[in-house]
Amino acid sequence: MEFPRCDTTVAWAALQGHFAAHGRDLDLREAFNRDPGRFDSLSLQAPGVFADLSKNLWDLKTRKLLTELAQECGLEARRDAMLAGAPINTTEGRAVLHTALRAPRGTAPFSDEVHGVLDRLFDFAEQVRDTGSSGIRHVVNIGIGGSDLGPQMVVPALDAWAHPGITMHFVSNVDGHDITPVLRRLRPDNTLFIIASKTFTTQETMANAAVARQWFLDQGGTDIDRHFVGATTNLTAAAEFGIHITFGFWDWVGGRYSLWSAIGLPIAIAVGSEHFRALLAGAHAMDRHFAEAPLKSNLPVQLGLLDVWYRNFHRFSSRSVAPYHQGLKRLPAYLQQLEMESNGKCVDLDGEPLPFGTSPVVWGEPGTNGQHAYFQMLHQGTDVVPVEFIAVKHPTHPHADLHAKALANCLAQSQALMLGKTTEAALGEAAPTASASLGKLTVARHRTFPGNRPSTTLLLDTLTPHTLGALIALYEHRVFTSGALWGLNSFDQWGVELGKALASQLLPRLTASGAADTRGLDASTAGLLARLKD
Ligand code: F6P
């Protein structure tokens, strides 16, 4: 499939002209004054997620041109190729079919395999959840990257549905400070370890799995077969480790797209098969929206196009995510892998250097915590960082007063970013803490907010398994959209390989007895190695 890269299209040139004439200087306050219908015309409803896109630095013309850009770049054909199972991950020669993992039986490629594993997985999860007969009280997921971040994000998000008698633990880091405090709280007889690794070769996971197995035996554990299970595509390696209960998946499931597969076992155990099915159904509803809605009203597409607009025209290099729901505390970390591992690339599909910026830095913390840390920079710093607020209308806790405060803060932050405060307004305020030696104008300047800072607000009715599934799929397809326009491969991750290879060369130098062998090393690494070995 040959499509032009975004920067060679007619629409791109038109967008450049539009940016120079209207885009760069668009003032949100004026735009709202000019157009009372702005909120309605720039809001979108997708399954489970309402999006207010009106506080972004764009207008209907920008949206039209960006949508034309998507058409010119063949976004629909690329999307359809992915959904049909074409090998669009060209550098690994693989299809990209995470959407098949949440498709109803018989409606997508590999349906029998997918539903066969899901059926077994759900049976197993329900057996574990029957704590009276399973005896399991603690479940430890050992995995990293995509074999950790999805379940680690979803389990707290769905805490309202969690099994009250089972505590979930997540161990990912090869640093022993991760597993040590977890093991300290466990007993072998009531603990289940899930060794989650697509490849079953990842150093961190294999090392932690070995520590867990040794701990289990040292503590008098007898039945490894019953207390260790695997989620992997590499059933042979799992068997060699001594695991005989395994839940498989396939090479067409990317690690960062795998929570819907066997990697979701901790989720199924935590919330049960019925709620896991609802998570899948929510994602599937978003898949349908992505596949069928016109580009203009297609939420993942429009979010991806905004990302291109911000990265390549406004040249914003980061985006902050602020979920005003504590259950989504790990969403920023999850999105970091999803977006930055997918689109953090500097060559196109043909290996040619890309002459424009790609993945932004994605970062954030739950609101309101972020407000008391880095929001200062978002409001008054020298860089503009688009912010993405996520709020829910109905909480799953009983504290209406707390919820109202959280929502008021969420709305206030996007309002403050947009409205700002002029120096004149600041001059009119009392400044009780000002030093006597500072002039009024100086103080007012410190209290001035430039405003016109963009944000998106995503609203969910309630954070349920269904809406969470839709929200995650929304992000997946948004990343697909920007990656497709940039003409890169969103589904490989060669950038993690070099560090892995060098680590395996350094490990024997660190563990060898005697003085540090620094031969052939750069002076900095040699110096550090010598200090560590001293
Ligand atoms: O960090 C690279 C990576 O391959 C990720 O893409 C993946 O999610 C993670 O490592 C874990 O890999 P595995 O599931 O094979 O252990």
TrEMBL record:
<dbReference type="InterPro" id="IPR023096">
    <property type="entry name" value="G6P_Isomerase_C"/>
</dbReference>
<dbReference type="InterPro" id="IPR035476">
    <property type="entry name" value="SIS_PGI_1"/>
</dbReference>
<keyword id="KW-0312">Gluconeogenesis</keyword>
<dbReference type="GO" id="GO:0051156">
    <property type="term" value="P:glucose 6-phosphate metabolic process"/>
</dbReference>
<feature type="active site">
    <location>
        <position position="500"/>
    </location>
</feature>
<dbReference type="InterPro" id="IPR001672">
    <property type="entry name" value="G6P_Isomerase"/>
</dbReference>
<dbReference type="InterPro" id="IPR018189">
    <property type="entry name" value="Phosphoglucose_isomerase_CS"/>
</dbReference>
<dbReference type="InterPro" id="IPR046348">
    <property type="entry name" value="SIS_dom_sf"/>
</dbReference>
<feature type="active site" description="Proton donor">
    <location>
        <position position="341"/>
    </location>
</feature>
<feature type="active site">
    <location>
        <position position="372"/>
    </location>
</feature>
<comment type="similarity">
    <text>Belongs to the GPI family.</text>
</comment>
<dbReference type="GO" id="GO:0097367">
    <property type="term" value="F:carbohydrate derivative binding"/>
</dbReference>
<dbReference type="GO" id="GO:0048029">
    <property type="term" value="F:monosaccharide binding"/>
</dbReference>
<comment type="function">
    <text>Catalyzes the reversible isomerization of glucose-6-phosphate to fructose-6-phosphate.</text>
</comment>
<comment type="pathway">
    <text>Carbohydrate biosynthesis; gluconeogenesis.</text>
</comment>
<dbReference type="GO" id="GO:0006096">
    <property type="term" value="P:glycolytic process"/>
</dbReference>
<dbReference type="Pfam" id="PF00342">
    <property type="entry name" value="PGI"/>
</dbReference>
<comment type="pathway">
    <text>Carbohydrate degradation; glycolysis; D-glyceraldehyde 3-phosphate and glycerone phosphate from D-glucose: step 2/4.</text>
</comment>
<keyword id="KW-0963">Cytoplasm</keyword>
<dbReference type="GO" id="GO:0006094">
    <property type="term" value="P:gluconeogenesis"/>
</dbReference>
<keyword id="KW-0324">Glycolysis</keyword>
<dbReference type="GO" id="GO:0005829">
    <property type="term" value="C:cytosol"/>
</dbReference>
<keyword id="KW-0413">Isomerase</keyword>
<dbReference type="GO" id="GO:0004347">
    <property type="term" value="F:glucose-6-phosphate isomerase activity"/>
</dbReference>
<dbReference type="InterPro" id="IPR035482">
    <property type="entry name" value="SIS_PGI_2"/>
</dbReference>
<protein>
    <recommendedName>
        <fullName>Glucose-6-phosphate isomerase</fullName>
        <ecNumber>5.3.1.9</ecNumber>
    </recommendedName>
</protein>
